[in-house]
Design goal:
Strand content: 25-35%
Shape: globular
Structural class: alpha/beta
Helix content: 25-40%
Largest sheet: 6 strands, mixed
Oligomer: single chain
Distance between the termini: 25 Å
Strand order of the largest sheet: 9-4-1-2-3-15
Order of helices and strands: EEEHEEHHEEEHEHEEEHHHEHHEHEH
């Protein structure tokens, strides 16, 4: 008997659009079972020097255009499709930095008289705050008029509700005189969204209306809330290829996001510099080093390269933490840290974080509790077909999407 005959599943195409890589997967989703990824790919993007935005965008779209047909062909050979149509029912595109801008905000409505939380009431709050966010982006001197005019809304979501101080999944139709609602809003360039949508449409024959776009911080926020319900104050560090994103979650909201231009590829470039080799060769040496198969002389050079990378990354993170603290002290930031990163580099960056320093991050570092959201956690939430390689980012996204089946 075919194990996939019990009940029909929804077939989902998932795109993870990063800055140092792209991921594409086909997943089988069911309300009764853990999501299963049946075909996936992680295609890395590596430049000898940090790329410009336009160059990175071009390469990312090219990679996606190459990866989608490859993954669909592999997926459709899966046994599930012997008795089910080769039809993509859900499409999730997840954007990481630098492909979006976002803002979190908590609105408090308090009145002497009791009022009702209606759908129109919530829609008015969202519309007003989205308008204010757009105006804020428009007046920011760092943003060109061309960039601002090309933005479109990706998310305007309610991510938390409190009625008289009590957290509720939904506040709709509730009567109260004190209401707190946490919002998360994001925007992205239409040109980039249209480019992604066109490529997806070509290979799936689905229109833009059938595609769902989200940003990675919201995906992680939603999943962490489910996985660690007792944790409500933390920093999420997403250490990608070219960029590290930090999201500060406080209570029911994503309080603040900040990014800096340094990630996994910093390690590769430092190794390339120390070994006097191109970046692609440096990446191969790094894999040998992590597998403890490098020559002793090469290992010493890579140790030195990682030490130099640590110095540079620590300068960036100190500046980022100072900005996050909003005039307060870094020691006052959350000490609970969740990390998403490439498996081979997660441990290195965790060591960077925990290393004792004599700067203003010293007290904060000494108290840290760091959790890597990797296979030990995610293997219970998302499974893989035989011969598929675990991918933390795609696992989180499949887990998130399965909540809507």
């Amino acid at each position: 008997m075919n194990i996939f005959e019990h009940h029909k599943k929804e077939v989902a195409l998932i795109l993870d659009v990063g800055n140092g890589s792209i991921g594409v997967a086909v997943a089988l989703l069911s309300s009764q079972e853990t999501p299963m990824i049946i075909a996936s790919i992680r295609d890395l993007v590596l430049f000898d020097e940090r790329p410009t935005g336009d160059k990175l965008q071009t390469i990312i779209l090219e990679k996606i255009n190459q990866s989608i047909p490859y993954i669909l062909e592999r997926a459709f050979h899966h046994p599930y499709f012997k008795n089910n149509s080769k039809h993509i029912e859900k499409i999730l595109c997840v954007l990481s930095s630098p492909w979006f801008i976002s803002k979190g905000k908590t609105i408090i409505v308090s009145q002497d008289k009791t009022f009702v939380i209606t759908e129109r009431f919530l829609e008015d709050i969202l519309a007003k705050e989205m308008s204010a966010f757009s105006a804020e982006v428009t007046t920011d001197s760092k943003n060109s008029a061309e960039y601002v005019s090309d933005l479109e809304v990706v998310e305007k979501s309610i991510i938390g509700n409190k009625i008289n101080g009590y957290v509720l999944d939904s506040a709709l139709n509730q009567h109260t005189n004190h209401f707190e609602v946490s919002l998360y809003m994001s925007q992205a360039e239409k040109k980039f969204i249209n480019g992604l949508s066109h490529i997806v449409s070509v290979y799936t024959h689905r229109g833009v209306a059938d595609m769902t776009f989200h940003t990675f911080p919201l995906i992680v926020f939603s999943c962490v809330r489910d996985m660690f319900p007792g944790v409500s104050d933390y920093l999420h560090l997403d250490i990608a290829g070219e960029i590290t994103d930090i999201a500060w979650v406080s209570g029911t909201m994503i309080k603040k996001n900040i990014s800096f231009p340094s990630g996994k590829n910093l390690l590769i470039r430092q190794i390339a510099k120390h070994l006097h080799v191109p970046s692609e060769v440096a990446r191969s040496f790094f894999h040998l080093y992590m597998d403890k198969r490098a020559e002793p002389s090469t290992e010493r050079e890579i140790d030195a390269a990682i030490a130099d990378a640590e110095k540079e990354w620590n300068i960036y993170i100190q500046d980022a933490l100072s900005s996050l603290s909003e005039g307060g002290t870094i020691a006052g930031l959350p000490i609970k840290i969740f990390i998403t990163a490439y498996p081979q580099t997660a441990e290195i960056f965790m060591q960077f974080l925990k290393k004792e320093t004599i700067d203003e991050t010293a007290e904060w570092r000494r108290s840290l509790s760091v959790t890597y959201i990797g296979p030990d956690i995610l293997s219970k939430l998302c499974v893989y077909d035989a011969h598929e390689t675990f991918d933390a980012f795609l696992s989180l996204e499949a887990t998130f999407l399965s909540k809507f089946v």
